[in-house]
Amino acid sequence: MTVIEEDLDLVFAALADSTRRAILSRLAEGEATVSQLAEPFDITQQAVSKHLKVLERARLISRTREAQSRPCRLDAEHLDEAVGWIERHRAIWADRHDRLADHLATLPKETS
Fold first, then answer.
1. Is the pLDDT of residue 70 over 90?
2. Taking a C-beta distance cutoff of 8 angstroms, is the pair 33, 39 a contact?
């Protein structure tokens, strides 16, 4: 498995959880601390921190240090890689479906 495939595995695994997707949506609006990210969820800050570690490992977020807090921010370039992968495969399957439809159109119609 190549490094790129391993990176995509981490990204797709991170995106498989609805809480992590919600955290990414929140971070798309701007930086936030762990307590700010935990507010809309009925889970502990410790649970949110575990989700953040998964997102950091997938390199979808990064943390900075400002005084006593460590705000998180979205790193969208790895999302772009996942979107690129999906788009390439969507195009391949769309082409295959088009060729199948063309082939089916050439077959004689059944009469019963």
1. no
2. no
